[in-house]
Amino acid sequence: MRPVDFTAHNQITLLFRGAEFFPALIAAIDAAEFDIYLETYIFALDPVGNAVKDALLRAAARGVAVHVISDWLGTGHAQSVILQREFRAGGVQHRIFNAWFRRGVARTHRKLCVMDRKLAFLGGLNINDDMISDDGFDDPLPAPRWDFAVRIAGPLVFTIHEEARAQWRLLEGLHLRYRWETFRERRSTARHVLDGTAFAGLVVRDNLRNRRTIQKALLKALGGARKSVLLANPYFAPGRKVRDGLASAAARGVDVTLLIGVGQFRIQDAVAHSFYPKLLKSGVKVLEYRRTQLHGKVAVVDDDWATVGSSNWDGLSLFVNQEANVVVKDRKFAEALRAQIENAVADSVIIRPEDFASMPWYERAWHRAAYLFYKNVLRIITLGRYTE
């Protein structure tokens, strides 16, 4: 596993929800001149997805080399077939990740796009309408999905480009040696430098050299926290090390606030609830966001460490799926993200220890059973690594 490769002089812009993300993404696609790599878990054929698809087709029509990877499970078989047909007809190169689980259970859960090695987008937003649920039922949401992406210019873009290109080449069936070759290129090739202030690094999780990179980056930030930890995630079911890291930070006096999205999957909520008593006892503040679907995977530690990306704090993201986060060490960026999380915290429900003290025994039993089921399934999938 390689360490996080930070670069200086980046310009990182926080994008909140689809209202900020999709116009910026489409404008960048329309401005691309040479090549585009886009990777997503869900590529929906709704009005938003069609707008992005049309922009990619326009780029291909003017001679840009456009490469799109969509996940078969996240996008769905029927929509994947339609996308494949329409993209091919329009000159867009499209590959479907792990159709029919031919390469095991791992999914590409990454959401990234890079243009001309000069501009990149990365975060938690899929290519879908953030007023429609993404759980397969297409139910309307009461408010736009709570999520984030970042727009990146500067040296880090080259790293993201090489990661996207490596994924594309690996889906051709090339030998795994290709990742090592691109890693050496990444270390030796000059990068475009801007007058940016952000110190940032790409953190990916795969089943090759980066099995624990994202988790270790999170644990290092928690271990070094001095004042505060503020994080939000929709699916909270990490292994023991992350739970202990949160509890340890709170125990040494760090103000730890955990904002969790609920209401989408009943069993996921029950698994998260099974952790609440110990977290609350250790001093972690736990809140639930119920206004709409919370999909953002973000955190701010102290005054100048922040992360935005695709990785949930659960067994699938930390031990199975392919994920991509950006870690930013910049006070101004951290302040902007902190303000957004604090706004959501103010609109959330505080979970108190007494809420569980008076809980009926059968609800506690359901939480425990859900966790045991989840743990055993993940231990099988991860060959026993989930509890790490």
TrEMBL record:
The record's annotation in InterPro entries points to:
Cardiolipin_synth_ClsB, PLD-like_dom, PLipase_D/transphosphatidylase
Q: Which UniProt keywords apply?
A: Cell membrane, Lipid biosynthesis, Lipid metabolism, Membrane, Phospholipid biosynthesis, Phospholipid metabolism, Transferase
According to the record, the signal peptide region is: none
How does the entry describe its membrane topology? Peripheral membrane protein
Query: Reaction(s) catalyzed by this protein?
Result: 2 a 1,2-diacyl-sn-glycero-3-phospho-(1'-sn-glycerol) = a cardiolipin + glycerol
Principal location class? membrane
Output the Gene Ontology cellular-component terms.
Answer: plasma membrane
Broad class of enzyme this protein falls into: transferase
Q: Which GO BP terms sit in this record?
A: cardiolipin biosynthetic process
Q: Which residues form the active site?
A: 109, 111, 116, 295, 297, 302
**Per UniProt, what is one GO molecular function of this protein?**
cardiolipin synthase activity
Please explain the role this protein plays, according to its UniProt record. Answer: Catalyzes the phosphatidyl group transfer from one phosphatidylglycerol molecule to another to form cardiolipin (CL) (diphosphatidylglycerol) and glycerol.
Protein name per UniProt: Cardiolipin synthase B
Output the lineage of the source organism: Bacteria, Pseudomonadati, Pseudomonadota, Betaproteobacteria, Burkholderiales
Q: Which gene encodes it?
A: clsB
